[in-house]
């Protein structure tokens, strides 16, 4: 049996200790050796196509290792030969006993993570746990994982200032209660409301904290006090922040370094708190995505989501105006804002991100009240603009009475988003209820595109001539018909004299063979010109 070289006594972290720190995160031991100690180095990613570079140590993340594949057993043996102390795999719903026996024979540990966890999250969990063991002060690392208030008190006692731990939505998750530490009104208001006060300087301050590689000093605006602050991250993934009041403005570089070490501990706490909730949220989001896309299994999906099949239902869609890259942090904060606001509007309201849009589904009393949903959308749009500087468009789909209609409500919400983004003077929020006529025209435009023979022959000739010569016959005819053939109203809307309008209409009839006295021809002409606007 080959035995990987473990760290010396007291050095590194034992497998049992690692499992205790990450208890509840979806990690378990499949093999039987529990006294193996692992060095405090970041996990290594398994790369079957890569070139081996001598002995290694620590944990190997077995990405792509299938429990039933013969090469997986050889990969575990090879990991032991190279010096790794543990291999992490996913069971994929299969037995891992064979791999566990190989690991026991080689003297290393086989760890299994839940299939639903992303490898990126596994890597973050491992890094946070190992960083905790290697860098944390004993006063902090002794804090029970999950007790954020105890951690806040430990940080406050260590650094010497009142401490608050926040999430990405600037909710105060925990705060210190060490006697005698000075606080200011902003801190007092935040504790009372469990929410950081909405101040003009917030956006710039938080941006500086999350841009910085470590802890920073944030000057207070009188009468506010200075603070030390640090972003809490798991790898590169932001989780929240820690803020320490510097009442006498005398906390030094040692305090900054201590705060950075505290951030590693806080990351573990926040990940522990989020891991189970995140997994459940991801599963529910996937169910909602399938429900919004429609299909024959809508009743089963609704049952799994706990929805009352009796309805009614309505879909709310948000479209943030964000850059393609570089706005991940602001998007995360926006998604949190939407989720919290939707939960406040209806308990257990579901949200999911599909493409570039965020969708929410409301049912029952909330589903039958599109006015209330519109008001919610307006609050989110306003809050997003003031707190994050993000322009958000929102649309409310049709209210539907059956599960099978949810996909229709989502479709209508998508169409309304198109209208909100293209119509001049449109606000940030619109509803299918108010845009029903335009939605009809929008869908007719799609039908006309798929069936060109439906388009009026005269309309085609008008549009082609305008495109070729720069004339405006289509607008003249469309406006004239929009105005119920009232010359005075049409001339006013086009800002031309009535004689000019009459000349243009007469010329159009001559050029394109249009008979405005034929009701059927006029209807198809107007409809063809009208839906052409939606191209």
UniProtKB/TrEMBL annotation:
Pfam annotation, one family: HTH_30
Sequence ranges assigned to domain CdaR GGDEF-like in this UniProt record: 299-417
Domain PucR C-terminal helix-turn-helix positions: 474-531
Protein family membership: Belongs to the CdaR family.
PANTHER family given in the database record: CARBOHYDRATE DIACID REGULATOR, CONSERVED PROTEIN
Name of the featured protein: PucR family transcriptional regulator
Originating species: Cryobacterium shii
Organism lineage: Bacteria, Bacillati, Actinomycetota, Actinomycetes, Micrococcales
